[in-house]
Fold this sequence. Notes:
Blueprint: H1 3-8, H2 22-27, E1 38-45, E2 54-57, E3 60-66, H3 68-81, E4 85-91, H4 108-120, E5 125-130, E6 144-145, E7 148-149, H5 151-168, E8 172-175, H6 182-192, E9 201-206, H7 213-219, H8 239-251, E10 255-259, H9 265-274, E11 279-283, H10 285-296, H11 302-316, E12 320-323, H12 326-336
Parallel strand pairs: 1-3, 1-4, 1-12, 4-5, 5-8, 9-10, 10-11, 11-12
Antiparallel strand pairs: 2-3, 6-7
Amino acid sequence: MPTADRTQLNMVQRPRRLRMNPILRSMVEETRVSPKDFIYPMFVEEGRKGRKDRLEIPSMPGVFRQSIDAALKEMEQCISLGVRSVILFGIPLHKDPLGSQAHAENAIVQRAVRAAKKAFGRDLFVVTDVCLCEYTDHGHCAPVEGEEILNDEGVSIHCKTALSHAVAGADMVAPSDMMDGRVGAIRDALDEAGYTNLPIMAYAAKYASGFYGPFREAADSTPQFGDRRSYQMDPANSDEALREVELDVEEGADIVMVKPALPYLDIIRRVRETFALPVAAYNVSGEYAMVKAAARLGWIDHDRVMMETLTGIKRAGASIILTYFAKDAAALLNKQGA
């Protein structure tokens, strides 16, 4: 075909040339997902051993409430797959209005951290969730008075919890409560106790989302009255997210997180472009459950949608992805030689 005709048909450039061969497609791939990008969320439950070491969560196939011994086996599996980090959520036997088991020396997360660090040392990076909703009998992330959520009283307890996790050997703490001022207070508490090198990954822009349902089933943390809209963010707001992130950065956060991930890819992108800190995103329980449910019904290709989801989160700007898909995705990536 003459050159003039090619130009007229806009075929001087043929983008498909770079898509025709799978090896070349891989070479020019702009976004690559790796097992090292993942943090795997795990639920450790007090009193589980002696009943049944593991109990699968109905709305989250493949995810378990489990004893520490069972969790150690799954951690070993994670390491073998190249997933080198987990985040621990604790489910206590007893709950009370102040969530006192969140910071007890021999509570479930503290014991799990000690066991994990003894078993795996520096081969596994152990993050701990710092919140009260799994530990309070009312299900809120701070103490309550009537139906008021008490911000400053909550911050005080979160500081005790973060410090107890540090003492147990946690590699990083992750406050998820969204109480005002908690990152700075936790930073001060850690520094005063000599843990100046322990990083904080702040749930900086955490939205009051409908995608948390399966997690609340798993952690038995549904609020017993009201909801969390007075402290988690309005899904309609994006400028507010930047203000929240800025506050956490000023208070000493080392990594900032956006939660959930998929409905808030625009927030991940804005945070990444605005702040010179690593950005994490939480691919939450509801996002996981939808893919699992649709795949079980044969409506979607599980592996393809899983990887498209994780690639989209990373493409938006997240360098760290908390995801229940971590093991499945790592196994697939390893099989593909990624």
